[in-house]
Amino acid sequence: MTQHSPNGIFQDAIKRLDRAAEFAEIDAEALEKLRYPKAILQVSIPVRMDDGRLRVFQGYRVRHDDTRGPTKGGIRFHPNVHLGEVEALAFWMTCKCAVTGIPFGGGKGGVIVDPKELSRMELERLSRGFIEQIADFIGPETDIPAPDVYTNAMIMGWMMDEFSKIRRQRTPAVITGKPIPLGGSLGRDDATGRGAYYCIKELERLKDWEPSKMRVAVQGFGNAGQHVARLLHADGYRIVAMSDSRGGVFRADGLDVPRAIQLKNQGRAVGAVYGTRSVCECPKCGGEDCNCSRDDTATGEVFSNEALLELDVDILIPAALEDQITVENAAQVRAPVVVEVANGPTTSEADQILAGKGTLVVPDILANAGGVTVSYFEWAQNRAGYYWTEDDVHQRLQRIMAQEFNTIYQFAAEKQIDMRTATYAHALDRIGEAIESQGTSRYFANSIEHSEIRQN
Q1: How far is Cα of residue 64 from the mean position of the Cα atoms in its chain?
Q2: Long-range CB contacts (within 8 A, 24+) of 283-286
Q3: Per residue in 43-79, pLDDT tens?
Q4: What is the distance between the alpha carbons of residues 328 and 251, in angstroms, rounded to a whole number?
Q5: Which of 154, 153, 164, 237 minimizes the C-alpha distance to 191?
Q6: I need a surface site. Which of 50, 208, 301, 305 has the fewest CB within 10 A?
């Protein structure tokens, strides 16, 4: 599958600005400002390994734009992290925060590492070491990290603790996605998947879907993919396929999603960080802990991760990494609805192919905005010292996601444009308004003309 060059993914993300700007009320200067990250930090993180060796890992933190508030965005641990990717993710976060109307800008971070190769103690040293290197670059009023690919609540807890040690005061609002006892928010663990679920429920209402007849495929079975699958399955949707980095499984009559989640996360005892099994092991494992050994109706067909994207289903949910639907396979995508739970799973060239086919794409900066929205809730709770119930969190999230989804859906219908363009235009309206409130060339040019008139 085609991959972008290190800088290509950021440039591809920026391309969508020009198309959306045609339908947004934004000054050209404000648009130009969004083409460049505000600040970029690259760091080296020395870590003493368990065997006594010293390894040095490379990490990045990018603050894209803070016009609407402190920057906000996750930290990912992955061997393929590169600067262009982190820049693109920070840009998407700027747009995502504007889409939901929360007072943040976009930030992102990453470390080049395969965390599954590290022991738990090595992982903790790396997590704390990264924060030590970027401590002057982040803060509750400056830039607030959160979990992302291969990072989780425990890692966020380590990072918050390390920042607090450096500042000599407990600072829970510097990091979101923390464990509940350390100041995390109820409802944060499933917020990204739940936000996408609320978008699908709005489509269900608008299109009068019957859930039991809707076939769903989920590519990527990490936190977000698991939760959107779990919620849809509980509502009667047929999850016929799911996959992770090691492969996928398909069953036409639907898969046992709760059992698949249990299997995927098997071995994750208290203190563990990553699950040890793959969803594609379920149909062939035959173990005592799997339905496959007791109920042959739970079995399914094993297939490749990429093949899932081309299945004949009603809803396709890319929930893995970026660049999954490209110019090479977009024509083979048969699902009439694509809900992007991953960041950047569809390239701009693939967008054009999907739009030409009439595919309805609920874009990432809307579909997966539940995570950053509840991160904002957590930040607000940390600062207030008052914590909400899980029902409060769910209700507030549902209200925001439904409101923004319907605003964008109606705008797309009125302008006869795709939902991605409509979503970016919606974000640009809010960002542009904030940037222009500080003055652009039109304001200052008028000021000069006014001054000249007064002098004359």
Answers
A1: 16
A2: 283/249
A3: 999 999 999 999 999 999 999 999 999 999 999 999 9
A4: 26
A5: 153
A6: 208
d(CA 357, CA 310): 14
The residue length of the chain stands at 456
Contacts of 100 (CB under 8 A, 6+ apart): 369, 372, 373, 400, 401, 404
pLDDT tens-digit map of 324-343 = 999 999 999 999 999 999 98
The conformation of residue 393, written as its DSSP 8-state character, comes to: H
- Structural domain of 317: 184-256+300-384+391-456
Clarify whether residues 161 and 205 are in a common domain.
no
Which residue in 38, 72, 108, 264 is the catalytic one? 108
**Entry pTM:** 0.87
Task: Give the number of other CB atoms < 10 A from CB of residue 179.
Answer: 15
108 is catalytic: yes
Say if residue 422's pLDDT is above 60: yes
Q: Closest Cα to residue 420, out of 8, 85, 16?
A: 16
Contact 338, 360 (CB under 8 A): yes
Cβ pair 333, 233 in contact under 8 A: no
Contact predicate 353/330, CB 8 Å: yes
Instruction: Flag whether 31 is in a domain.
Output: no
Q: Answer for the pair 249, 235: CB distance below 8 angstroms, yes or no.
A: no
Same domain, 349 and 202: yes
Question: Looking at 119, 142, 175, which one is the last position of a domain?
Answer: 175
Task: State both tokens at 315.
Answer: 């809803």
Distance CA 343, CA 258 (A): 25
Statement to judge: residues 58 and 194 lie in one domain: no
Q: Give the SS3 label for residue 192.
A: helix
